[in-house]
Each structure stands twice: as structure tokens, then as C-alpha cells.
Design a protein that fits this description.
- The complex is a heterodimer of chains A (472) and B (406).
- Chain A has 472 residues and is of the alpha/beta class.
- The mean pLDDT of chain B is 85.
- A five-stranded antiparallel sheet of chain B has the order 6-7-5-8-9, covered by helices on one side. A five-stranded mixed sheet of chain B has the order 10-13-14-15-16.
- Classes of the chains: A alpha/beta (472), B alpha+beta (406).
Chain lengths: 472, 406
């Protein structure tokens, strides 16, 4: 009887006929002839469908690919799963253990993944976007499964049956380890569709695939890529559905602050210089190459450098004028006793405030040991306030935080929802408040409107109609 | 390499044409010399200060992007120190505890300046700057020796390498004239874990130098066009420049736009790594030394660069050995990531057992593949090793192979 031999080769599969007439036939949709090695090649992610096709068509299969184990995984000190976690697990299993689960931050995504790992009992790789998250996941898994957890990234390179990796390291290592896991979990899976990141999924054979995110929305067709590499969205819970039950009740308040006279004059002049330049050269920032064109022309044309520095100046004034600094300080003082996260759009603003208020600033420049120290002391309450630019936008668990202050940010809905998510983990009697500071009369007003176009804010707008905005 | 914002190229007819600089342009050489001098004279200068000085200088050059690109290459050749004179994290911790205590008090000043003043009472080191140990405050220790012309040559090569970061694969045509250079080329392909399809070019005129056509990419490239192997391709490219006669073309994906890059030896690219071509991995060096010291009846000899396989396909063994009787055998090593080519080679040896080629295979390469192991064990001159083969093991198989000839 003719058959096929299947082997794992540098993040891909090689299929070889052990007789005539079996290839490409039933496998045609998955394989391609590779003359470099004289064999048929397939994406490693197609391992499960190829094996299934072989079984369905009674093709004898010599499987030299699978190098993962069945594990005796037992959850120690298990929590009773919450209703939404039970539902999500049921949906994911109905979908043959392939698919994305969308849950807001703080609603127990990590524990849900633990449940999924215990359910399929296979060697598992969890892929996360940052080193902080990698360390956090490894701690959680070790706690629940009481076994050593491998880590890949940030100087660690230990592969164990349960391993956590950063996306970057997973892409680099998958050609060597892509056949060693039966389950792959993509935390914050909206990171996956990038040209290179997606290789972490396509070079892995794991038949079981789970994507976790609070914000699956993408405007670039990325959702289709996630669906192809992980599976469809099998379960989705929204912030407002879980508020008051799983998540802390929350309020969002937009505070409009006025620039000083001096700042207004400087802002107006800087804006005039740069908008004159972009009008003169017909630069359209809504076009895909608009920003690139501005940089290129600013470097080349007369008046370009002045336009660029004016652009940066007016942005800096809007992002952190004197009034904003005062407002942040007043909010910190009036919320003493609470744990406060302050978010900025850029590192400079974060460090400027850190210097002004003598407060810890956590950015990508913070070294690993101090970063851990900051987070531990913030959680313990030794440091009641933590300033950050973007590194705490997603994933890192700071359940004690109840107040968020967005000093500045992009127009990204995802970023804004992620920042809100940081303060929503439920705790007895906790009322979360997200303050958003917006410089009146600047482009920040429209930026703020754009980033609030999400149902997490739509509901607030109705509930706090007329009270959502304050003026300082 | 250069960051995307520093890339200089123009697009013409679907081709990306790197804007190379003339390495003998006196004005540019003078500018390069000035940049080098500033770096050399800035020892102990803060990184931020150095960058500001260089920024002022590059802003004055007629092509700012070019100037910033040159500065970037020099910056990559700088060695900076960390701020080690103070334990800043420990000092900050004490400061933040003080600020936390004061915030918790009812009497916390309403004015941030007064608050800062109070927290900073008695503080000396952090008084001026709390985060003085950020990367921008690192100090320049030294600049790796660089000459003006070399800087311009490095710039030209970086333009190509930085474009190749967005490459999906390279096609090369290289002269088969110099076996030593070719061997290095193929060593580098292995080193960067790239796959290639090599063929001797057809239709060459009688007496002309044979050309080898190479199609180089990563294993998954035939399934999905991806720039995943861009860094490996870019890192490998200088090996092509060391050849006398070459042509290279590559499909790029820049900002989702498909472009083609085509170059040849007339681009006058210079491989600036003096030891690049001569680089021999440590384990190879050790093996050569041990072999020459231990093996009495065999010696390592120079070999031609490739073996012709079926059709026009080529194989590139790692070593050639000669016995005291003058019998020669090649040895090709297969590491963990070379399973595909190994299968191809086994098929060839099964059909042509007379080939004087030994195969050494890393155990990890065969792990879990019983069928391949069995085929492998049936062939003469095939042996296993872990990480790198030992001299005794190689000699043993050479002697067995020689015996079987007799």
C-alpha cells in the first residue's frame, strides 16, 4: 500500500511518497513541490489537516514529525471557573481546540488558558509580546501546575514541556522547536498578523491553537490571518457585559485643560508653521504614505526642518502643557490611598513628570531588575503611583490599580481600551476611574474622540451624558 | 545596518536602485573624516551629547539622510559604558519611598515644586537628575578604528544589506573560478541556515569560466513569500561581494510594494570585514588542528569547491582527505537544520554507491526519524556525531571506506 513519510524540516513539513499515486492528490491544497530538496513541502501549521486527510483517505502515514508529549497536567488549588470561562472553554473545545477567545483585561484570560492546557494535556508553548509578560505567565503556570516552566527570551533559553516565549524569540527558534508542542497559545494575539510574527504560528505544528485578546479589531485584514493561523473567534465577552460581576465597576472622565496664554501663543505659531508646510506641499496625513512623505520632504526642502521642529513643539505642548502637569498632580493628591497608573504617549513626557513629581517611571528603557522592583512595589503599595508610556498598555497584571490617568496617547482605540483594562480587575469595593486629560483647543480633542469609539466608552457616554467631560 | 528611515534609493521601472556614494569623492571623504574625528575626540562624552553634536553636523550637510546614515554606521561602531559610578536604582528606591510617604500625608504640598523640594531634602546625587543612568547618559569609551573611505564603503554595503532585510530571497550568479572563495560562500550559506538551489549555468562558451546559478532563500519561502529570512540574507550578502565575478537579484517588499534589486560586481561593493571571507568557525579550526596532529595516515587536502550531482545540481562537501596511498574522500557534514539536503544526498548515494563521499550527521538531525536512520545505517561511509565529529571517528570511517575500495 502506498503511503507518505512526514518529517519536520526547519519550521516546515516535508512529505515524501513511499509508493506511487498518493501525492499531491488529496494533499494538493497544502503542499508544494520543493526542487531544492526534491520533496513536497507544507507549512508546519498544516500538520493537523494533513494527518487528518491521510486518515480519511486511508493513506499510510509514517509520522516522524510529532515530538511533543501527552502530559499529566493537574491544576493545583484550582479556582471554580467563572461562567464566561466555562462557556469559552466549551466553545473552544467544540471548535476542535482551535480558535480565538476575546475577553477584556482582568476577566481571567490567563486562568482560562490554564484550563485549556489542563483540558488538552499536551506540551504547550505560550507566546507573549513582552519579557514582563513572559515572566508573569511562567510564574502563573508554575503556581497552577507545580512544574518547572521553560522560558525563551530576555536571555533565557530553556525549552520544557510547558514553555513561555516572547514573539521575537518564538520566530527565531520555531525552526528548531516547532514540532515540540501540541498546544500553542498566543497571548495578545492581535500581535500575530505582522509579516514576521505570523511565522511563529505557521512554523509550529501544534494541532491545538488558542488566541487570547481583548482587542481583536484590526483595520488591515489581520483578523483573517489570525483566523487562518489560529482559528475563528469562538467566544467573545465585552467589558460592559462583565462589569460589576467579573470586572470592577468603572467610570471614565474626560478632563479638558486649558493651555496657558503663553503656551497657546506658542502652540498656535508652531501649528501655523507646520500646517503651512503641509498645505504647500499637499501632504495628506490620512494617506498611507502621508507621514513618510512629511519626513522625507521635511529633510529635503527649504523650511522643512523648521516645519518638523514646529510639529514636534506643538505636539509636546498639547501632550503635556503646564496645566496638564498641575491637573495630574491634583489628581494624584486627591486620590491618595489609591493605586494610580499614569499613561503618557511618549517617554519624554513620562520622564519629565517623573522628575517633576519624584515618581517611578517605567518605560522600555527601564532595566529588567528595576522594572520588576517597580511593579512589585506598586502592587504592594510601597509606591502608590507609577508613570509609564506604553509598556504597561497590555498584559502586565496590576490588579491593585484603581485609578488610571491618560495624560496623552494616540488615536488608537486598542491602546485606549487596553489602558482602561489595566484598572478593571475586580477587588472588593473597588470603583475604577479612568481620567483622560485633553488640551482644549488643540488637535488632541479630535484624537480623543477617535480613540473613544468603542463600546466600552459608548456605554459610558450614555450613562454619564453631560457629566463625562469636566473642565479644569 | 541602516534603519528604514535612513534608506536612500530611488525606484525606476519596478527596480530599487540604492543611492550609492562615490567612495573617492573628496568632499564626502572630508565629511567622513570629520565625523570620525568628532567620534574619536569624544571619548568619555555622554551618548546624548555626542548625538546632539553629530546631529548639528549632519543637519548642515547637503544630504541630511546620507549624513545621518554615515553617523549611524559610526554609532554602531562605538562602544559605550554604562553609568556605573553610582547605584542609581538603590538611590531612586529611597527617593520614591520618601515621595510615597509625603504623598500619603495630608500636608502634601499642593505645589509640585515645593513637593519636589521637600522630597529632595538632603539628596545629592539625584538632585539634578533622577534618571541619570538612562542609555542617553552612557559614555563613549571608544570607536572601532575606521578610515574615511572604509566608512563610505561600509555605507554602500549597508544600503544593500538594509534593503535585503525586506528581501524574500536572492538569486545569484557566481563564477566557479576560485574554489576557495566558493567554499567560503557555501560555508556561509550553511552558517546562516539558508537553503539554496545550485546549478551550473548552461550554454557557456568553450573556454569561458563556468558560472553557478544560485537561488537562495529560507525553507518556508516556497510556501509563503516572507521577509522572515531577510536578516539572514542580509548578513550573508557580504560573502557574495568577496567574489570576483557575481550578479545578484532579489525581490523586496518595501511598505507592501514589490520591488526588485539587481546588482553585480560593477556596483563596486566592498566587503569591509577583512576576516569575513577567511572566517573559520571555531569547531572547524579545532577539528583541523586535531586531525593534523592525530591522524598519521591521512591528511586534509585542498579540494575543488563542489561535487556534481545528478543533472546540473551541486554538493559542497566540507573536507577532503587523502590517504598515504593517494586515495581521496570527501566528507560532508549535516547538522540539525540540514535534514532536507541529507535526504537528497542519501538518495544520490543509494543510486551512486561508487561516489567517494562520506556523510557525517548530527544525531539531532535524525532524532525520531527511524526510516531515515535505517536508510542511513545501510550506506557505507555514513556515521553519526553529536555537535561535531571526533577525529578518531572520521579516521575509522575513512579507513573502512578505503578498505571497501580494495
Amino acid at each position: 500500500m502506498a503511503g507518505i513519510a512526514l518529517e519536520f524540516a526547519a519550521g516546515t513539513l516535508l512529505l515524501k511518497e513511499e509508493g506511487a499515486g498518493t501525492l499531491p492528490g488529496v494533499f494538493a491544497a497544502h503542499i508544494r513541490r520543493d526542487e531544492r530538496v526534491g520533496a513536497w513541502r507544507a507549512a508546519a501549521s498544516d500538520y493537523a489537516p494533513i494527518v487528518r486527510l491521510a486518515h480519511e483517505n486511508r493513506v499510510e502515514l509514517s509520522d516522524n514529525v510529532r515530538a511533543y508529549d501527552t502530559l499529566d497536567l493537574k491544576i493545583h488549588s484550582p479556582h471554580t471557573p467563572m461562567e464566561h470561562q466555562r462557556d469559552a472553554l466549551a466553545r473552544w473545545r467544540e471548535s476542535h481546540g482551535r480558535g480565538m477567545v476575546v475577553m477584556p483585561t482582568g476577566s481571567g484570560k490567563t486562568y482560562f488558558a490554564v484550563l485549556a492546557m489542563a483540558a488538552v494535556k499536551r506540551s504547550a508553548l505560550v507566546v507573549v509580546p513582552t519579557i514582563d509578560l513572559m515572566v508573569q505567565w511562567a510564574g502563573v503556570l508554575k503556581n497552577f501546575f507545580r512544574t518547572d516552566i521553560g522560558m525563551l527570551g530576555g536571555g533565557s533559553k530553556e525549552i520544557l514541556p510547558l514553555t513561555v516565549s516572547t514573539y521575537d524569540s518564538a520566530v527565531l527558534q520555531m525552526e528548531f522547536i516547532g514540532n515540540r508542542f501540541g498546544l500553542i497559545v498566543f497571548d495578545e494575539c492581535h500581535h500575530l498578523p505582522g509579516q514576521v510574527n505570523r511565522m511563529a504560528a505557521s512554523m509550529c505544528i501544534a494541532p491545538y491553537r488558542l488566541g487570547l485578546t481583548a482587542t481583536p479589531e484590526r483595520e488591515d485584514g489581520g483578523l483573517e490571518i489570525m483566523e487562518k493561523l489560529i482559528g475563528p473567534i469562538v467566544f467573545q465577552a465585552h467589558i460592559d457585559e462583565l462589569e460589576g460581576k467579573v470586572l470592577a465597576p468603572y467610570v471614565t472622565r474626560r478632563i479638558r485643560v486649558n493651555l496657558s496664554e503663553e503656551e497657546t501663543a506658542e502652540y498656535t505659531e508652531a501649528r501655523r508653521v507646520y500646517t503651512t508646510f503641509i498645505r504647500r506641499h499637499q501632504i495628506d496625513f490620512s494617506a498611507p504614505d502621508g507621514w513618510g512623505r512629511f519626513i522625507a520632504l521635511a529633510a529635503r526642502l527649504p523650511g522643512g526642518r523648521e516645519a518638523m521642529s514646529s510639529y514636534l513643539r506643538q505636539r509636546a505642548i498639547a501632550r503635556c502643557g503646564r496645566a496638564k502637569l498641575e491637573t495630574v498632580w491634583n489628581l494624584i493628591r486627591s486620590n491618595r490611598g489609591e493605586r494610580i497608573l499614569v499613561f503618557t504617549a511618549d517617554n519624554d513626557t513620562a520622564y519629565r513628570m517623573g522628575e517633576a513629581f519624584c515618581l517611578p517611571v517605567l518605560t522600555h528603557k527601564t532595566k529588567a531588575a528595576e522594572r520588576r522592583n517597580f511593579l512589585d512595589r506598586f502592587r504592594s503599595g510601597e509606591y502608590p503611583v507609577l508613570l509609564t508610556s506604553k509598556v504597561l498598555n497590555e498584559g502586565v497584571d496590576v490588579p491593585e490599580a484603581s485609578i488610571g490617568i491618560v495624560v496623552s496617547g494616540s488615536a488608537s482605540t486598542r491602546e485606549h481600551v487596553q489602558r482602561l483594562g489595566r484598572i478593571l480587575r475586580a477587588r472588593d469595593g473597588k470603583q475604577a476611574v479612568l481620567f483622560e486629560l485633553v488640551s482644549e483647543g488643540t488637535s488632541e480633542m479630535s484624537v480623543s474622540d477617535r480613540r473613544r469609539q468603542h463600546r466600552a466608552y459608548e456605554q459610558r457616554r450614555l450613562r454619564f451624558l453631560g457629566r463625562g467631560d469636566s473642565k479644569c | 545596518m541602516l534603519t528604514r528611515d535612513l534608506l536612500r534609493y530611488r525606484v525606476s521601472g519596478g527596480y530599487a536602485k540604492p543611492s550609492f556614494v562615490a567612495t573617492d569623492d573628496p568632499a564626502l571623504l572630508e565629511f567622513a573624516a570629520q565625523l570620525i574625528t568628532i567620534h574619536e575626540e569624544s571619548t568619555d562624552c555622554r551618548r546624548e551629547e555626542l548625538e546632539e553634536n553629530i546631529g548639528r553636523m549632519t543637519a548642515l550637510w547637503k544630504d541630511v539622510k546620507l549624513a545621518r546614515g554615515l553617523a549611524k554606521i559610526l554609532n554602531d561602531r562605538c562602544i559605550f559604558s554604562e553609568c556605573l559610578e553610582q547605584d542609581y536604582p538603590a538611590l531612586r528606591h529611597e527617593l520614591f519611598l520618601r515621595s510615597a510617604r509625603l504623598i500619603a500625608e495630608e500636608s502634601c504640598p499642593a505645589d509640585p515644586a515645593s513637593f519636589r523640594e521637600k522630597v529632595m531634602e538632603g539628596e545629592t546625587v539625584l538632585q539634578n537628575e533622577i534618571y541619570a543612568d538612562l542609555p542617553e547618559n552612557e559614555r563613549l569609551l571608544s570607536l572601532k578604528k575606521t578610515f574615511p573611505r572604509e566608512l563610505l564603503e561600509r555605507y554602500n554595503l549597508s544600503l544593500v544589506q538594509s534593503l535585503l532585510l525586506f528581501s524574500e530571497g536572492i538569486e545569484c550568479q557566481v563564477s566557479a573560478e576560485d574554489p576557495a572563495l566558493l567554499r567560503r560562500l557555501f560555508k556561509y550559506l550553511k552558517f546562516f541556515r539558508l537553503l539554496f538551489h545550485a546549478e551550473l549555468s548552461d550554454g557557456r562558451k568553450k573556454g569561458s569560466v563556468p558560472m553557478i546559478h544560485l537561488k537562495i532563500d529560507g525553507p518556508a519561502s516556497i510556501l509563503e513569500n516572507s521577509t522572515k529570512y531577510g536578516l539572514q540574507l542580509a548578513s550573508f550578502f557580504p560573502a557574495v561581494c568577496t567574489l570576483k565575478s557575481w550578479k545578484a537579484a532579489s525581490d523586496l517588499k518595501l511598505r507592501d510594494k514589490p520591488l526588485r534589486l539587481a546588482l553585480d560586481e560593477t556596483s563596486r561593493l566592498v566587503c569591509p570585514y577583512t576576516n569575513f571571507g577567511a572566517y573559520i568557525p571555531e569547531e572547524l579550526k579545532m577539528f583541523q588542528n586535531y586531525f593534523n596532529g592525530k591522524a598519521t595516515l591521512w591528511r586534509l587536502v585542498q579540494r575543488s569547491a563542489y561535487l556534481r550531482m545528478e543533472g546540473n545540481r551541486l554538493a559542497f562537501p566540507d573536507f577532503r582527505f587523502r590517504s598515504a596511498d593517494g586515495v581521496e574522500f570527501d566528507l560532508e557534514l549535516f547538522h540539525q537544520w540540514h535534514k532536507g539536503p541529507l535526504t537528497e544526498r542519501l538518495e544520490f548515494l543509494e543510486k551512486h554507491p561508487e561516489t567517494r563521499l562520506l556523510l557525517g550527521v548530527d544525531r539531532a538531525c535524525l532524532k525520531g526519524d527511524d526510516a531515515l536512520k535505517e536508510r542511513f545505517s545501510k550506506l557505507r561511509g555514513c556515521f553519526l556525531f553529536s555537535s561535531f565529529p571526533g577525529v578518531e571517528n572520521v579516521v575509522k570511517h575513512l579507513e573502512e571506506a578505503e578498505k571497501s575500495l580494495k
